[in-house]
Protein: DUF2911 family protein
Amino acid sequence: MSRYIYLGIVVFGLLFANCKEQKTKSLPEQSKGAITTEPPKKVLSPLTSTMAMIGDAHIHMDYSSPGVRGRIIFGGLLAYDQVWQAGAHMATWIETNKDLLIDNKILPAGKYGFFTIPSKEEWTIIFNSNWNQHGKDEYDEKEDVLRFKVKPLISDELTEHLEYQINKVNDKEGAISLSWERVSVEFNFKVNN
Structure:
C-alpha cells in the first residue's frame, strides 16, 4: 500500500510540475511586458483644431501643432521660399460652409488644403483643392484654388506651438491668423452671401 502512495505522490508531483511549466509557456506574447512603469510618450505635434461662426458661416481648421523645441523654424527647419503644409504630418485643412471673399477673390464653400510659402519679406497663402494629403507629398500647384500674399509680423514673444485662430470681426467679417516661433501672419475675409 505504501508503494501505491509513493507512486501517487510521484505522479502528482510530475503533473503539478508539468502544469506549472505549461502555464508559464502559454502566456500570449502580447501580455509579456504589458505592465510598464514608463510614462506614455508625449505627442510632439498633437492634432488640434480651431473653428468659429461668422454670421451663418461655419469655418473649421484642422492641423498638427509642432513645437519649436529650441530650433530655428523659419529659414532653418523650414527653408524659405518652399511650399509648407502649414503644420506637421498631414496637410492642414480648412472647411467653410459659405463662400468667402479673401483678397478680393471668392473662395467657394468647401474643404481645402491650407499651404504657405514662407519668406522673410512676404508669405504666399494657398488654398488647394487636395485637402487630404500627407505633408506636401502630393501638392500640385495646378490644384490651387486661391493664392495671395501677406506680410509676416515678427514678435519678441515666442509661440512654442503652432497656433491658428479664427477671429470674428463682425457678423460678416473675420480674420485667420497663424503664429509660430516669433512669426505670425494674418488675413481678413468676408462672408459672401
Confidence is low (pLDDT under 50) at residues 19-28. Residues 24 and 32 are 11 Å apart (CA to CA). The beta strands are 47-54, 57-64, 93-96, 100-102, 105-107, 110-117, 123-128, 144-150, 153-168, 173-191.
